[in-house]
Amino acid sequence: MYLDIIIPCYNEEAVISETHRRIIEVMANKNFTFEITYVNDGSKDKTLQILKEIANNDSRVKILDFSRNFGHQPAVSAGLANSNSDFVAIIDADLQDPPECILEMLEKAEQDQADVVYGVREVRKGETWFKKMTAKAFYRMLNYFSEYKIPVDTGDFRLMRRNVVEAFNQLPERQKYIRGLVAWLGFKQVPIFYKRDARFAGETHYPFFKMVSFAMRGLLYFSKKPLQISTNLGISCVVFALLFLCISLVRYFIDKSSFASGWTSTITLVVFFGGIQLITIGVLGAYLGNLFDEVKGRPEYIIKKIYQKNVDL
Ligand code: UDP
Ligand code: MG
Fold first, then answer.
1. Is the residue at 313 inside a domain?
2. Distance between CA atoms of 27 and 30, rounded to whole angstroms?
3. Are 154 and 207 part of one and the same domain?
4. pLDDT tens digits for range 145-185
């Protein structure tokens, strides 16, 4: 049995040696063969240099070096597209997901004859309460909005069988929200629960705005409900405006003398409807923007070079 471990890396010089050491330690002397694919996502620090040293001493290591920073999801997609083993595990470079869990996932996959074993975060250490709270709320909201069920509190830390990886690699969309797409693929998927540690070293590469745009991708690619909500909002506004008109007319006929007032209500209504229009146009624009990106059909990532010891690539 062959296992490929995919590790996306962006500016991870502080952790990458330790990550490699831990993974080798965990995978040593097991009854399967493994290799590790590091995807260097345009790191600006010494990550590539350290990875090359690692690859020079270990023929089980392969490096996919991107031409620039394309993002976490494209890095994982590249790893999946370049793997050909029986099982593929996806794990972050910062040791937040314990490598020992991969063994548990393999066991679970064999036991349950599962095609995907995904990690569900029971505890998240070393993350701000704000991140934990927003993440928890987001996954539940996504599930409500989504036309397909996407497991909550689940990242990309997972094990996938060859058949699932091949199905995934056939998906034509460019901006992949991997955890959602894998759920969409079907097959037999089972969870394992684990405690997410704090980052071993270094800093998160998902600051607030990047997190929001990642969440938006999940939402826009898995749900058309925001469009529906915009329409409903529009209809509610029209109903509200008509009611307001009726009330004003009634007031006018009851007591004409007091009717000169009304500046506040006029301005309020203008701003209110203006806001609603902008919001709905914004929602439409978000879908259109994604459509534009998809239609352009640019590749998700560009690999500058592949490094592997004793293999001329
Ligand atoms: N990552 C990447 N490209 C990016 C941002 C992040 O390859 O543009 C990698 C990063 O090196 C790590 C994983 O994606 O292995 C998750 O990132 P991070 O730990 O910073 O996110 P967090 O765990 O804080 O959400
Ligand atoms: Mg992390």
1. no
2. 6
3. yes
4. 888 888 888 899 999 999 999 999 999 999 899 999 999 99
